[in-house]
Each structure stands twice: as structure tokens, then as C-alpha cells.
């Protein structure tokens, strides 16, 4: 495993405050049904032998690890802005003896060459980005994907019941109203379309204790 760095604008940490980071894994494992929808996201990625896959906003590396476990014949790369979560991810992957490259960087300014990846997956990153950052990130993902490459995203989506809308309120209090507004509006698919993706679809919607979690897919034009 390697860790490289570049530093730019501020970012929102995994649970908004660095002091809460140790609670991130226990909360996502127990309260968010993390394994269920992360496995579904990986299945939808339809990864093939030899492909290059980026886990964007990889955090503590749970999805990164699952990707490499499910598809050991792919090259998996994780990127996150926060060196603290990357250190946790590093330990988790080392314990599992999995070979993955972890990079510190910003989703809005990816430190990769054009057309480097066959697939980009991302879970729970986009509600940490405001609309402008989301647009820049979507454009960056298009830049680093090969023609026809896939984007798979799991993030908070538009609530389909009043209870789900209410359940999302604590996440908005924690991570901010400015960054989560587009999620409340269910605007991620249209932002991906605006960036130039095609075949943008909602794959599945999960009801969780903290609201509606949506899985999206999109494809870069061939
Ligand atoms: C809620 S956590 C999700 C972590 C992981 N993907 C998961 O599903 O458990 C959001 C992550 O996005 C990272 N992040 C926030 N803004 C970022 C940015 N601009 N660029 C890269 N990572 C960012 C945070 O450091 C944090 O680790």
C-alpha cells in the first residue's frame, strides 16, 4: 500500500468532526446496513479482470476492502481528503493482507491522468460536497474515466416518505444544510447528466435509520 498527498481546500470529515472519526465504522456497520448496500454497489459495478477501479472518498476503507476482496484480479485505488481516515483504511487493508493504493487528495482535483480508470465507485462522499464541488467532482470523474467507463454512487437521496425526510435531519445537522440540500432534492442524477454522463439511473433505494440511501449509476460516453 502507498499513501501520497496533496492539499487544497477544506473538507468535511467522515462524521463532520475529527473527534468523532473513531465512531464512524461502528455507526455505519450497525445503524446503516452498510454491508447490504455496499455489496449491491459492487455487484452493479460488474468489474472485470484487469480493470482499474477508484474508490472516491474512500474514508476508512470499508468499500475499498470489499472491492478488493470481491475482485482480487482488479487494481483498486482509494482517494480521500483526510489523512486520519486514510491511516485507518491503511491499517484495515494491511490486516486483511490486501494490496491497494491509497492517496490523499481532493475529489474536485483528482491527482490522476486522463482515462486512468474503468470504473469509479463512491459511497457517502457527495453529501459532503456543495453543488459547485459536486459539479467539479463529476467533471473530474469523467476526465479520469476511460470512454464508456462507469460511475457507481451510493449517497443520500430524495426521501419518499415523511418519516425518511425526518430521519435525514440529524445528518443535515451534522454535515451541513448547504452540502446536503441537493441530496434532499434528489438532484445528484441531474448533476451527473449536466457534467456529461449518460445512462444515469437510480439502481435501488434503501430505507435506513438516517433516511433514504440511493444507489446511482452513470456512464461516460464511449
Ligand atoms: C461519510 S464519509 C464516507 C467514507 C466511505 N466512502 C464510506 O462509505 O464509509 C465521507 C468521506 O469523504 C471525504 N471527503 C470529504 N470531502 C472530500 C473531498 N473534497 N475530496 C475527497 N474526500 C473528501 C471525507 O474525508 C470522508 O472520509
UniProtKB/TrEMBL annotation:
Source organism superkingdom: Bacteria
Keywords: Methyltransferase, S-adenosyl-L-methionine, Transferase
Domain Methyltransferase: 53-149
UniProt cross-references to Pfam families, sorted A to Z: Methyltransf_25
Biological process according to GO: methylation
One example GO MF annotation: methyltransferase activity
The name this protein goes by in its record: Methyltransferase domain-containing protein
Amino acid at each position: 500500500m502507498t499513501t501520497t498527498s496533496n492539499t487544497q481546500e477544506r473538507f468535511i470529515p467522515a462524521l463532520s468532526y475529527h473527534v468523532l472519526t473513531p465512531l464512524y465504522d461502528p455507526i455505519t456497520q450497525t445503524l446503516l446496513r452498510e454491508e447490504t448496500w455496499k455489496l449491491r454497489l459492487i455487484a452493479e459495478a460488474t468489474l472485470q479482470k484487469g480493470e482499474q477501479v477508484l474508490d472516491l472518498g474512500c474514508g476508512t476503507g470499508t468499500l475499498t476492502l470489499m472491492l478488493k476482496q470481491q475482485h482480487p484480479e482488479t487494481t483498486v485505488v482509494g482517494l480521500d481528503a483526510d489523512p486520519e481516515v486514510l491511516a485507518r483504511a491503511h491499517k484495515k487493508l494491511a490486516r486483511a493482507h490486501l494490496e491497494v493504493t491509497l492517496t490523499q487528495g481532493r475529489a474536485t482535483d483528482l491527482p490522476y491522468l486522463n482515462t486512468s480508470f474503468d470504473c469509479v465507485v463512491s459511497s457517502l462522499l457527495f453529501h459532503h460536497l456543495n453543488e459547485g464541488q459536486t459539479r467539479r467532482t463529476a467533471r473530474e470523474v469523467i476526465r479520469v474515466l476511460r470512454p464508456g467507463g462507469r460511475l457507481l454512487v451510493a449517497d443520500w437521496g430524495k426521501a419518499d416518505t415523511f418519516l425518511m425526510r425526518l430521519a435525514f435531519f440529524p445528518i443535515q445537522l451534522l454535515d451541513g444544510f448547504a452540502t446536503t440540500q441537493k441530496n434532499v432534492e434528489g438532484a445528484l442524477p441531474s448533476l451527473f447528466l449536466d457534467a456529461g454522463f449518460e445512462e444515469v439511473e437510480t439502481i435501488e433505494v434503501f430505507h435506513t435509520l438516517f433516511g433514504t440511501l440511493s444507489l446511482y449509476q452513470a456512464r461516460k460516453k464511449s
